[in-house]
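If you are new to this repository, start here. Below is one unmodified record pulled from the training split, so you can see the exact layout before writing a loader.
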Amino acid sequence: MTKGRDTKPHIGIFGRRNNGKSSLINALTGQETAIVSDVAGTTTDPVKKSIEIAGIGPAVVIDTAGIDDSGELGQKRILRSKEMLKLIDLAILVIAENIFDEPEKGLIADFKKHEVPFIVIHNKSDLHKAGEEFLTVIRDRYSVPVIDFSAKYPLNIDDLIIAIRETMPESAYRKRPLVGDLISYGDVVLLITPIDIEAPEGRMILPQMQVIRDVLDHDGIAVVCKEREVDAFIRKMDPKPALVITDSQVFPKADAAVPKNIPLTSFSIVLARQKGDFDNYLKGTPYIAKLKDGDRVLILESCSHHVSCDDIGRVKIPRWLSNFTGKKLEFTVVAGLDRIPGEMKEYSMVIQCGGCMITRKQLINRLKPAVDAGVPVTNYGMAIAYVHGIYNRAIAPFGLKGENVDYL
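And here is the target side for that same chain:
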């Protein structure tokens, strides 16, 4: 499944068929963005809509199939809708006609299982106004906002927006700086960006653009060059850079060219600290040295892309790991948010890309099965630094020192 690859906060709309989930999306956007029909089951698969929410900014709303869908196909639709719980930052449960029973209770249990905050909307209040006692029981039982609402006549839309804004985790829309907390006013940050076969035509890749913007947002000076110019350029630079960030693929060249007294790390590692499972990456990376013949390594890419003859995830990382360990390893690559083949415990290690195309919630949930199963996890940049003997230097800018961790 590749739905959900977007760094904006995600809101999932859940509820029974014909409770007005699509109408609620139209009320939120102020336009007819979702198909509305009196026929139950009009929405059959999760559908994404982009909206703007005051106080949060751009967001993605996911319209799902009814949780009371019937038949074999209906059960598949329900399962697919529940898969969205791994992608969203906030859920809205839509009820109507003062009905709140086992389907709703089961869905709330799923929200809690996936640690998804939620609010409850009693829709169609123009036809069936919610009883105050009915609303109070739900509020008291679950300690969440419950709003009597009419998507047809959304007079209290502001109450809904306020509830969304107050319930949405702040981490979903206010990102931790990539490097802003590592630099001071006027500091120069040197960015090493190879232009090779994998570089997109006429533009920079997303992590490079994100770091440039973050440096500028924090009153730093971003200087960009290719790896071939680094050595000569640093000798000329005055003042010297306060931080150097390199593409992980040229870590060895950057390590040799950048004086040891200048902090050095990679785009992938700063992304890992901002939105990845950084603590588990630190714990899991040294396990690379413990890999044995026949071990299976799972490589997770967050996006689908054209695969070149020297692809980082499918070619270079497997080659580097095999050369470093001297072992015959098996590699499985999964792109986007597709299902992982087999059982997680069949894998000896998981290596996740930087995750620039997905949210932190999606990335953490992607790795959760491995973490729960005790399978070591790391990311592209940290794994590459480790196999090239640069790991301690690459994490030092964050005040960290590598350590060996034994896995059972």
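Two things worth knowing about this chain: The domain at 10-172 is CATH 3.40.50.300 (Rossmann fold). Confidence is low (pLDDT under 50) at residues 1-5, 39-43, 403-408.
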